[in-house]
Amino acid sequence: MEELLRTNDPTEIAFAQALLRGEEIDCFVMDVHMSALEGSIGILPRRVLVARQDRFRAAAILRDNGIEPSGR
Questions:
Q1: CB contact at 8 A, 61 and 23
Q2: Structural class in CATH, domain 2-64
Q3: What pLDDT sits at residue 18?
Q4: First-to-last CA distance in the chain?
Q5: Long-range contacts of 13-19 (CB under 8 A, 24+ apart)
Q6: Domain spans of the chain?
Q7: Where is each DUF2007 domain found (predicted)?
Q8: What is the reported pLDDT for 1?
Q9: Sheet of strand 46-50: strand arrangement
């Protein structure tokens, strides 16, 4: 799995997940429960991961919808 997106914005993560699932690209959100450690103030970003072979297509889908992928 490779990182596709890193953000603190939960709506951006939900939108990215919906876009990827709509194109049948599996994704996994990491660091979802880190808010318990930070006191629920939202300073630690969450990461969206996709399979290595899907990363190029997933990044293109996000860019086409106004989300700039992070990482490579």
A1: yes
A2: alpha beta
A3: 97
A4: 13
A5: 13/46, 13/48, 15/65, 15/67, 16/48, 16/62, 16/67, 17/48, 19/61, 19/62, 19/65, 19/67
A6: 2-64
A7: 1-64
A8: 93
A9: 2-7, 46-50, 27-30
